[in-house]
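Box S1 | Example of a co-folding query
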Amino acid sequence: MTTDIKSLTREELKAQFKSWNEPAYRVTQLLEWLYARRAANWDAMTNLPKPLREKLRGTFSFNCLQLVLKQGAHDTTQKFLWKLADGALVESVLIPANPALYGESSDRHTLCISTQVGCAYGCKFCASGLDGWKRNLTPDEIVEQVLAVERAQMRNAECGMRNEKSDAPKLDTPHSALRAPRLIDNIVVMGMGEPLANYENLLKALKILNAPWGGGIGARKITISTSGLAPQIRRLAAEPLQFRLAISLHGATDAVRSRIMPVNRKHPLKELTAACEQYQIQKGRMLTFEYILIAGVNDSIEQTKPLAALAKKLFAKVNLIPYNTVEGLPWKRPGETACEAFLRALEKQKVPATLRREKGGDIDAACGQLRLKTERELPAR
Ligand code: SF4
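Box S1 (continued) | Returned holo structure for iron/sulfur cluster
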């Protein structure tokens, strides 16, 4: 399999161009086509000489994600189901201005991206793990989720412009490849897969999305979420980039966590807490605990005590997320009153906490749900 062009850093491209005796400014031009103009094929890169384009075409692949389905909720949360070059399916979710997520309220766009096809970690409440793990995403497949969503939004805007004004500028170059400001300014790595189980590819992708020559998205605007891979959290703590860390906690005692998250048997809370402390000390940043409220499992007021103790110890804020029912799984979402009571109990113990008044509940927004449903329906079509 040839390497995709979007899996390479500027330094790697520079070395390649040097070996071809191509001037360094050609790398800048190429990067502009890839990340500022979001070109979707080699032919769009009109200021690169044809022989160079041919050399690139013969050396690297250039895959773009193919949109299979797009679902939009009433509150404009949009879910994208993509087909990869080998036919595998992954999801990304675009969440415009979600103040409940990471604190600030603004008009920003957050994209939740996937890092694996399926997941090996088998959390009992999650649709992504239901059919097991298929493979890791490559760096370009992670980066492409941002570019592909932006391309899709640009195409929508173009269609709107054409419909509005018949003498509007013609924008029908391949995928337009126009320079446009970045739509996505926040990334949460919280889609399908356990991000830290695909460490190398994830880190490379995030470096590309963060670099000024690439996505230009600040490291502090990128949140990596993990189910609790303690050794990789320690490794991440030693990275120079200041990514935010979120822990998918979902239980504040080993008994509750081990019941719904098998990863806890390998890395119990004591080990996870120590790794988080190291991250906290090295980065000096507040952590986030994701806590899906599941009726009768982790939503009793009693549970707020160990949760509050852990949050205080690690200077973490808690995002409470009422469970999104997944077809074929027995778990239920608690009632609104129970969720509000859980939030108030945490606040009473002086823990910063938010309750997500769910966006996307009507679009199969639980992680992995749309992919699973589509994959199961496809053979029947
Ligand atoms: S919650 Fe995350 S780690 Fe757990 S099975 Fe789902 S995708 Fe994997």
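Residues 166-176 have pLDDT under 50 and may be disordered. Residues 139-164 form the longest helix (26 residues).
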